[in-house]
Amino acid sequence: MSNDQNTFSRRNFFKGAAMGTLGGTILAMGAYSYSPWRKAFFSSAERKMVDIGVCKNIKVTNISETSWFSNADLMGDIKGAGGLLVNQYSYNWPPFADGTGLGKGSYESGIAKIKHLLPHDLEEAWAITEKLSVHPENAGGFACLIEVEEMDGTQHKYLLDSGWSYKWMDECFKREGIDEMLKNREIEALFISHEHFDHYWGVPVTYKYDPTITTYIPDGFYKEGLQYLKDAGHQGKVVTVKAGLQHVSPGFASYVFGVPIICRVYGEQSLYFNIKDVGLVSVTGCCHQGIIQFAEAAYKEIRYENDQLHGIYGGLHISPFEDWDPKYDDLVLSLGKYGFQKIGCNHCTGILCAKKFVEAGYPVVKGTARFGSKDAVYLGNGDKIGFGVDV
Predict the structure, then answer these.
(1) Does the keyword section mention Endoplasmic reticulum (predicted)?
(2) What is residue 187's predicted lDDT score, i.e. its pLDDT?
(3) Is residue 318 one of the residues assigned to a domain?
């Protein structure tokens, strides 16, 4: 297919996909990703074309994509605690466990057991919470390192998320040298995608090595999440990013989607990088907003090179529990309309989904299935991906 045909197809797809909010329940489950594909074309989206500048390239190191180790244990706990809409801080999962049992805990009673140890005595804190928790061995976490090179060669390093388990994430940080980067103040900021346990609860591991690091959180954190920043030992600046686009550095902007998410969480922050002569690269923690809304926001809001959605990295929230449903096939087909030239997926994308992408002929970058990642079909723990020149 020619470039002109690709561009025509992509633009018309976005015009057809442009639509408003569908409601809390659908958004919470990620079904927003599926429903537009089942509808006829909508009215054209107005494009703001905000100029965020350009960068030369980005590199992503997957510190950990293994958020949990057993789907059955995770879903069994959620069901036993009352379901997907129950406050996550009540589950009695680590680190906020108080020993009262599944679904009977609270942030206040749990943090009281370990607050005096944060952020430096994490081994002792984790040993305490393990004894009081439901399935502490199931906790892992999601986090990645993003390295951005500006056009003049200036280098920036950022963290996206800080995982869940203190023990697991500390091991992962040391494996990838993140601990030393933080100690040396090489990492400029921590971006938290959303308040979920597997992306946020491991934040003391970051603060253990740099308690002053600037931390960006999406608007919508609950009082427990806001208090945890203080209780975890943070001494630096906290930036609460409102819904919409926020410019960070040349070629880099974050975007907060005001969406309700399961386990009583609200709002997800994702990242966009405009690479010179290449196109836009989208990086996400979980993509609870859905791939279509993620791509649509870029199309409507940002001016990017070649009008090309070049790449995507992260968890795409499609069949995260390997429970394939026919409606997901529509979404796999729709992905081809974006014209992505490099896809780096993992975490809540689901292994079955990644295999579907490969079968469909999409440019999926495979991994090495090391350090606990289950399959080489996607980028696993310790794997890297680059976008742009000289990477």
Answers:
(1) no
(2) 98
(3) yes
